Amino acid sequence: MSNDLQTMRHLQQENIRLRSENSGVKSHLLRVQQGIRALIDLQDNLDTITSDTHVYSLLNNILFAALNAVDSTDGSLLLMDDETEELVFVDVIGEARDTLMNYRISVNDGVVGWVARNKEPRLVEDVKRSSMFSSRVDQDTGFKTTSLICVPLVDGARVLGVLEVVNTRTGRPFGEGDMDIMILVARLASIAIARLEETAASEGGNTPD
């Protein structure tokens, strides 16, 4: 009888655990679906870009949708300063925003620099195991990076900058599926920047700050 009771308790605990896991999976899938729908809406808006469009507002919306889709709350958009060969944080979502805005990183420094130089995305599941990761930004901001994805923004052969997301809400490492989403986001962001530049040039306007 005692063994039967133990078995029943075990089954009850297992049932509770499975329900909790299923709830977490459903919540994550819902965020992904919402993020993808938001990205589709933003893609449709790319056709309406004019010289009056505030590009960073558009890119902020793209970045925000991406963060929801990959289960993160911290991400950044860095643009290339060709004169100094530095990447500049021009949009930041998350707790390090105040410190990181206008912060500069050399293209020879860390994961973001590698991505900009090589024009290839990079997934780092655990920064402690990556010799490429530079802790300088964490040291300057007090932020603690555990996992990250960085993807390049390109227009043909020209490097516009990079997009980076760090850490998931749950603490799980980013995966290949997350990187696929970020690659799509980077394409949308690159198109937005390039189209705004083209529109501003053709209309004789200036690219918005």
Topology:
Layout: H1 2-45, H2 55-69, E1 74-81, E2 86-93, H3 97-100, E3 104-106, H4 110-118, E4 122-124, H5 136-141, E5 148-155, E6 158-166, H6 176-202
Antiparallel strand pairs: 1-2, 1-6, 2-3, 4-5, 5-6
Helix pairs in contact: 1-2, 2-6
Summarize this structure as a short list of keywords or feature phrases.
209 residues, single chain, 6-stranded antiparallel β-sheet, alpha+beta, 6 helices, 6 strands
CA-to-CA gap between the ends?
74 Å
Task: Bin the strand percentage.
Answer: 15-25%
Note the run of SSEs as H and E: HHEEHEHEHEEH
Tell me, rounded to a whole number, the average pLDDT: 82
Number of strands: 6
Largest sheet: 6 strands, antiparallel
Strand order of the largest sheet: 3-2-1-6-5-4
In percent, how helical is the residue content?
A: 40-55%
Apparent shape: globular
Q: How many individual helices?
A: 6
Estimated radius of gyration: 20 Å
Q: What structural category do the secondary elements indicate?
A: alpha+beta
User: Which regions are unreliable across 5 or more consecutive residues at pLDDT < 50?
Assistant: none
Please provide a written account of the structure.
With 209 residues, the protein is α+β, with helices and mostly antiparallel strands. It has 6 helices and 6 strands, in the order H-H-E-E-H-E-H-E-H-E-E-H. The chain has a 6-stranded antiparallel β-sheet, with helices on both faces. Strand 5 and strand 6 form a beta hairpin. Helix 1 (2-45) packs antiparallel against helix 2 (55-69) and helix 2 (55-69) runs antiparallel to helix 6 (176-202). The protein starts with a helix and ends in a 7-residue tail after the last helix.
